[in-house]
Amino acid sequence: MNSIRVFAPATVANVACGFDIFGFAVANPGDQITLTTREEPGVSITDIFGDEGRLPREAERNTAGIAIQTYLQHIGRTDVGIDVVLHKQMPLGSGLGSSAASAVAGVYAINELLGRPLPTVKLLPFAMEGERLACGSAHADNVAPSLLGGFVVIRSYNPLDVIRIETPASLFCTLVHPDIEVNTKDARFILKNEVSLKNTIIQMGNVAGLIAGLMTPDYDLISRSLVDVIIEPVRAILIPEFHEVKQAALDNGALGCSLSGSGPSMFALSRDIQTAERIGQAMQQAFLSVGITSDAYVSDINKQGPKVLESSVLS
Amino acid sequence: MNSIRVFAPATVANVACGFDIFGFAVANPGDQITLTTREEPGVSITDIFGDEGRLPREAERNTAGIAIQTYLQHIGRTDVGIDVVLHKQMPLGSGLGSSAASAVAGVYAINELLGRPLPTVKLLPFAMEGERLACGSAHADNVAPSLLGGFVVIRSYNPLDVIRIETPASLFCTLVHPDIEVNTKDARFILKNEVSLKNTIIQMGNVAGLIAGLMTPDYDLISRSLVDVIIEPVRAILIPEFHEVKQAALDNGALGCSLSGSGPSMFALSRDIQTAERIGQAMQQAFLSVGITSDAYVSDINKQGPKVLESSVLS
Predict the structure, then answer these.
(1) Annotation: binding site of B
(2) Right CATH for A3-165+303-312 from 3.30.230.10, 3.40.47.10, 3.40.640.10, 3.30.450.40
(3) Is B184 a catalytic residue?
(4) For chain A: N or C, fewer Cβ within 10 A?
(5) What is the pLDDT of residues B274-290, one digit of tens each?
(6) Whole-complex ipTM
(7) Going by DSSP bridges, is the β-strand pair B42-49/B81-87 parallel, antiparallel, or unpaired?
């Protein structure tokens, strides 16, 4: 009986201006998964902790389960039997890439357990199947950074073209998750199908500035580029006190602040851990001023992707 | 009597995916300007060569003239008297940044002639006034690369935020100007005011890929990113044989090929001068197959901006 326990990081998709094409991974929070081999072929979810009973237990309806199943089919190992225990360590439907972290943890773990038949980057399509299940489309802006670590551009989906962007040395992330829920599908539904050419140009300028700012690195340029004129103005409506919370982050030294993915969580970037902590307190206080409690996570950027926490593998 | 002769480079605006936010300068062609001081205050265009009599001779209606006048007003030196001779060395209305090169040459020359009271980057707004005269709006995607050299992002116009992107070592440009004319205002008029969100996302992915490709450098990534799904499909209609000419460039080793600015000139990038030459011949041949003659320019990227060719300054 072999077993492995893997951590995969939460992620911030979009990163203000980069709707659907950009994301990064954080050191904390993240999900953990434990896989244990068994004799009977197939994938079973034997337990899920931390989801308050809300996630499906059937493997083919669970993001981690489907990712592992799709992977085993692809490598022709449907003979393998796997018991899965999922340890959710972040809120669901939060905009923190919860489903992506579980899918990435699952597919990374099974690949490790089987002696790494595929290189890490080749695991992406299987994790994306988990996203298809969770969100209705196989988007990659959470799974790619969760799997590869750091900042990742999804240049194209057809064919899939994923580019890692070097992470600046001094960059910290504050995540604040207010205790309200926004459904990812709703958050997408309210977006307009058309964008003015004027706003497209402004957004492209900020995307170019953000990539250049990260790669130089030029923190002022990063800050000036963390501006979203297309998505944020629409989705902010779903978050009570959005503008006050954002202003609290900026007033306390954030390089920028916007929705994390489709929200309701909000992220802020800053240059040191003390600033990141102070930003978190200010953002929480702003939410609390209208009676909304929240959780805050402060960490550096995850640069490595998933991590094996324990393994007991007999070859 | 002091005099100076300055060269300023032609430029490729947009660079496929970067409509209105991106451009680069080429080593050849470019415009030259000669300024000579005189006693009587004011700016006069005393001669223009190479324009077939088409450019206005009144200083306030000439892109170089207005750039110099605006500069002199700004630094409070309307006492200065200047005779201007303009040597146009590229076709007008060609998409090669002809008006920008003249304006940049003019404002760079007057600043040098007066002992450089302003640093080069501060000259940009005056050159942009030349563009306002020529095109109806003070756009910067030609003047900024002509003035600063290399690849330049215009992240924002309000406030003006211009970012230089490092030029990869092995990059060459082929420019082909067919003997047809497209008016810049017409080329802008046919654009749609709305863009689908889907195409905005594709374009943002390519902008991110192009910046990352140039900065890494990663020539394959540059190549994959030189794709324009928003502007090129509309403007290509104005250029006979556009798709055949582009295919000829790609078949002969181009990393990418698209309109230079609003056309009708087309640019192609490649990794060595022999390939760049071959691409030029193939593009010209494709135009010639439908009876369109053309001029081709092959050069490396201009990395320095304008250059003083001669000066005779008594202090």
Answers:
(1) 91-101
(2) 3.30.230.10
(3) yes
(4) C
(5) 999 999 999 999 999 99
(6) 0.95
(7) parallel
